[in-house]
Amino acid sequence: MKDLVFDSVVIGGGAAGMAAALELDRAGFSCAIVEREEALGGILTQCIHNGFGLIEFNEELSGPEFAERIEERLAGTRITSFTGATVMELDASGDIKTLYCYTGAHGVMRLSARAVVLAMGCRERNRGNIRIPGDRPAGVYTAGLAQRLVNIEGFVPGKDVVIIGSGDIGLIMARRMSWIGCKVHAVVEILPYPSGLTRNIVQCLHDFGIPLYLSHLTTNIVGRERVEGVEITPIENGATRFDKAFTIPCDTVLLSVGLVPENELSKMAGVELNPMTNGPVADSMLMTSVPGVFACGNVLHVHDLVDYVVEEARRAGAHAARWLKGERPKAEARVKAGPNVRYCAPSRVDLHAANKLYMRTLIVKNDATLEVKVNNRVVKSVKKNHIQPSEMIAVELGPKDLEFAVGAPDPVVELSIS
Amino acid sequence: MKTGSNRYDVCVIGAGVCGANIARRLSAYELDVALVDKEADVSFGTSKANSGIVHGGFHHNKKYLKARLELQGMMMFDRLQQELDFPFKRCGIVVAALHEDEMRAIEQLYMQGVDNGVIGIEMCSRERILELEPKLNPDTLGGLWVPGGGIVEPYRFVFALVESARKNGVEIMTGFKVEHAARAGDEWTVRAADGRVVKARYVVNAAGLYADEVSRAFGAEEFEIKPRKGEYYLLDRLTKAKPERVIFPVPTSVSKGMLVIPTVEGTVLIGPTAEAVDDKADLATTREQLEKILSSARAMVPSVSEYDVITSFAGLRPTLEEDFYIEPSAKAPALIQVAGIQSPGLTASPAIGEYVKDLLKKEGLRLSEKPDYDPFVGKRPHVKDLTPFEVDKLAQADPAYANMICRCEKVSEAEIVQAIRAGHTTLDGIKYFTRAQMGRCQGGFCTYKIIKVIMRETGLSWDEITKNGDGSRILKDAL
Amino acid sequence: MSEELICITCPLGCHLSVDRQSDGGLAVTGNRCPRGVKYANEELLAPRRVVSATAAVEGGAACSGNPGGLCAVSRLPVRSSAAYPKQGVPELLEAIYALRVSLPVSRGDVLIKDFKGSGVDVIATRTLKKA
């Protein structure tokens, strides 16, 4: 068995993994990226649409371009990338973390490192998770799988499509399928408002005249061998109106019903997860409950913009490097998700450093106020023109904002929206 | 085996758990045997969608053939597992009583079990049963403990039986839908819908849901198989609600009830329901029945949560009468009927294999043992059961063992290739053989890889890749 | 009377309010950057779209850079270098689907120059080698 030793190992070679590795390398530490696909780039490789990089590169790029430009930065560094390599076991219990990686090219490799950065991204929620009853025909796909089949393998999964869920992946696929000559008959959303970015509603649905059924539950999939139709049922005043159910004929169902951070390895390593994000609980250094194990990107919490993923991953890499040098936060405060806030990540702030938090609201609102309280004292109040759950909000808190917490026992920083 | 000829001593119709056991049993003798099935792969009927339980031998009175065969069959599983290497675990069965009047039913089951000759059956107090199964509702009053009961992956069992049969000379033909049969001399000519023909001296009708139609095709007894659907939920392997034992409620007059089953592979199955349906191909799950399952499961195991559900499916029981109908046809010569095999069919199936072999012998089939019969099927390594060191060693000879295709269920490319070479070329066939696509992502990450491996290994083009044969095509076009 | 539209120049999706002025111009509010003003003008007068698609590679398969395994890639992702007039998009897509790109190809390579004199190119968005 190949035995390799690094200062740090990054699990996942997408945008987050590459960005974190670059920071560790910059700080002088050896770093290996382990990626299970055959190429680096993660999910960006199949996201051929534009909208990436406005903040990072000041340009609007497609996913593959963004990924390649980050990947190019790896040249000339000491970073070692293993592709086609799947981490199957992670033992992070000691000072030296051990990872067993299974690869077609090199058999099994055992990697040892003093720090590990989790950057495994997400998986898609599927039909089983949301329990759509009915037949089990061919033709039911998650939107991401359909995207992979179309954009990289060159296969068309179906011709007459209904998309369940108005998440971004589904909206993008509505346009993509339309552009390759398929007919998208409807997008069906259980909430009373769409969950994807507004831009995508306009560009992917309005442009093509695809109807969006809000407040509709998907109640049946029909078809013996191949999908023949989808039954949807309106929700009125909170009640599901089964008497008003109707069936849309189609041969393909694409599910875009949410993403779940891929934390099976994290669980195996004993990392504590936050049930609100399904990602690890992380402190002000983006370190999980297991010392020396850090997390960033979609595995920590589901992002919307890859630019924020890269920003967060850089911080994680930089923190991991500092940690390897022996730095620890002197004093932290707990971060609490207050009224109308779904979650904040990470869960702690360093009282003596610049902190960046990402959060999501539970509500849709114009002219909202984001308030930050330290031990119940308002320290910051920011006006927001428009907020919605599908658009992540960044919050910066520095030592000045947090001074009231210094010296206090168990200080709490609460973020709320009104 | 007369190559090229389509003449056989026995043709077994239906490659489910009964037909596969019968064919394998017969393969120990100097006989030419054909095993035919109308689906694209074996075990695609009732045998792939059931509770996967090896029953305890106490549910039925010994006056029934099914009770006797159940008891014989349940004791054959250890040896079969050694020979065939399919997932099987004798984890034991508990029947839980939640009310005082249910304890009377428990007592009856206990006495029936003792009468049937079940070894180790016990009546339990509350303390004892909670000790045996800590996940039970703490309000459980007591129940029955049957250490001989167990769990099996039913399709892997059938695949292994079929592989063993094939190894010993049985000819397997899938996509063979029996349409017509005619007797001439001492031989049946059996014709399939696609024109293929099999000639056989003896025929076994083990066609499950379609046994009535096959019987009619042979001009044999007229009966009607009525499908009764059972819906199930599958829970994630990390669910808190995973019991140690198979948990039964007290049975009703109609069914054994809805169970909580720890599968061999580590997930949890809850169900099945029991509803009569009209259509033999109706495998749809329904909202109402699924809700019934959750509430029934929670009554016995309170920690069952809907958030742990990863998928649901349904199976159809081929119902006919109270007991198994396993006898030579009184109308058509040299035809053995094996019909109406509902629960405990899977448990009884090894014994059904023996029983049908004996029935054929009584009907005049000469049985002379094959000196080179090999009951063993080579053990295949499964990456998920191996340590990294063992995988590394395998990978040195075949790198495909370390190339992971399905990381949710830990299935390597080598195993996918083996499935394909064993004849499983549909996505479902590969799923049942390897478990790839059965995990938490339900094929989200591995499906496109499996499609590519199928195309590479079989030379099939993109439009021939199906979910489970026929019209279940996966792709509609290529760019 | 204000017209409401959502700017789609970037994923931020600002909600714009547009007032038509007496001099024919548009007063735009709600934008977070100057491109919102540009967008409102264009969307109401001459709408354009950035088009992304995939093109066929010659020989049917390319390598993403890592030999072995199941790495063959059948399609090259491409996009328009800038937004193209909305009504012309179907034609542009047809031209993209007619391409057979020879390998190797680099990110940024121009595959169709100045489509129909629009000033908009079609460029490769990924680097691929021969299989």
Structure description:
The complex is a heterotrimer of chains A (418), B (479) and C (131). Chain A has a five-stranded parallel beta sheet with strand order 6-3-2-10-25, covered by helices on one side. Chain A has a five-stranded parallel beta sheet with strand order 12-21-14-15-16. In chain A, strands 28-26-33-30-31 form a five-stranded mixed beta sheet. The mean pLDDT of chain A is 95. By secondary structure, chain A is an alpha/beta fold. Helices cover 20% and strands 37% of the residues of chain A. By secondary structure, chain B is of the alpha+beta class. Chain B folds into three domains: 1-88 and 151-225 and 320-378, FAD/NAD(P)-binding domain; 89-150 and 227-319, D-Amino Acid Oxidase, Chain A, domain 2 (2-Layer Sandwich); 383-464, BFD-like [2Fe-2S]-binding domain (Arc Repressor Mutant, subunit A). Chain B has helices spanning 17-26, 65-74, 77-84, 100-116, 126-132, 154-167, 211-217, 287-300, 345-362, 388-397, 413-421, 427-434, 447-458, and strands spanning 7-13, 33-36, 53-54, 88-89, 93-97, 122-125, 142-146, 150-152, 171-173, 178-184, 187-192, 197-205, 226-235, 246-249, 259-262, 268-271, 275-276, 309-319, 325-328, 335-339, 404-406, 411-412, 477-478. In chain B, strands 1, 2, 9, 10, 11, 12, 19 and 20 form an eight-stranded mixed beta sheet that branches. In chain B, strands 13, 15, 16, 17 and 18 form a five-stranded antiparallel beta sheet that branches. In chain B, strand 10 (178-184) and strand 11 (187-192) form a beta hairpin. The longest helix of chain B is centred in the C-terminal third of the chain and has 18 residues, at 345-362. Chain B starts with 6 loop residues before the first strand and ends with a strand. Chain C is an alpha+beta fold and 131 residues long. Chain C has two domains: 2-46, Single Sheet (N-terminal domain of TfIIb), CATH 2.20.25; 49-124, CPE0013-like (CPE0013-like fold). Chain C is built from two helices and 13 strands. Strand 13 (155-156) of chain A pairs antiparallel with strand 23 (477-478) of chain B, so a sheet runs across the interface.
